[in-house]
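tool_call predict_complex ligand=histidyl-adenosine monophosphate
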Amino acid sequence: MQPPRGTRDFGPNEMAQRRRLEALWRDEFRRYNYREIQTPTFEEIELFLAKSGPGIRDEIYDFKDKSGRELALRPELTAPSMRFYFADLKMEPKPLRLFYFGPCYRYDRPQAGRYREFWQMGCELIGDNSPEAHAELLFLALRLFEKADLKDVKLRVGHLGFLRGWLKRLGYATSAEQSPLMRLIDKKELEKLKAALEPVARSKPDDVRNFFELFTIESFEQIKLLAGDAESQGAIAHLVRVRDVLASFGADLSKVRLDPTIARGLEYYTGLVFELDAPQLGAEKQLLGGGAYDLSAVFGQPPVDAVGFAAGFDRTLIALEKHGHPMAGSDALDVIVAPIDPAAQVAAVRAASLLRAAGRSVELEPRPVAVRKVLARATGLKARVAVFLGSKELERGVYAVKDLASGAQTEVSEAALADEIRRLVGH
Ligand code: HAM
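tool_result ok
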């Protein structure tokens, strides 16, 4: 039987690679004083329906529990983080920096890089919406991929003020009117967008033409072209400052470009928005997305500044694989310890315990076994070293240590065993 559609099993080797990336990223979040939280994998469905947009309903795994509660597997972690914040973390000193790592579920059509169960590592910064704070957050986003040695990434940065300003000018004043168009923009379905704007194009052809010019803007140098109402002016000032502070962090600005057409699929965003792509990945190239948002109304609370992002863990691993440097992670065994003679059993257990205490991964043959069998098993497990103990060794108080890479065999005393294994394994 296979796992359900859109889900995967991960074998030992893949898990070792996943844990390695997880550890690298966790360490990076810690360096910026983000502290980890964990929330349930399922929540009341209302949490996601309120502000994530109408499209989310189709993408959600929802179910009723035995008491008739309407629940959903979480499609993302921002709404749960804010629920937790308003319930229990409100009194924490601000700005509050939180990060999380965990599985998310979306009823998407599975394809390469798109799963129904996938993992996100992300963060939320609560209580500071300054361009300086945004710049540090963007720098952290870039750092995650630098840390993973994924060089070919592009960070696109925008601000919803531009799109919303333009849609207002075209006659779509409320967010309910804007949201179907924002969805088309998010999916870059420009033909459908043109069709939807057809009636407006008849009365305001110049405005509609200028609106589509937004899709050609690429560099920060063109930002002045976006000047318009006060909201756009504010957005320009914000983004210019973000870019300047990002430079002072030492960010590689050749990886960063302006994109005023980022709409984001989730509806809670308010200002700064950004997405990071691995261009060579094709359709599912977006590795990270985020922005400034406000979810306070969902919880009947006064507004709170918040900004954050989530990185797609699975897609990042695919991108690394495509780049030819998959995440190094190894489930290889350090040592196999085997008694060759029944009398050596106790001493073999002692050797295994001693090596485990020294931090080694050790497989102990539980019963006396022929050398030939031990070597065959060691090859299958890709063990680095084999330690044998027969009656001869037992009499002389030594262990036979075989380096499985070179084939060389030596004898060492129990006191020297751990050091000898360290020398052979190389760390
Ligand atoms: P999102 O853009 O929906 O944002 O998801 C973030 C990342 O999760 C995507 O860039 C992508 O790499 C990965 N991802 C999304 N769907 C799938 C899927 N079906 N299979 C594999 N990977 C996927 C959010 O979720 C927001 N909560 C981010 C955020 C945090 N905004 C503010 N704070």
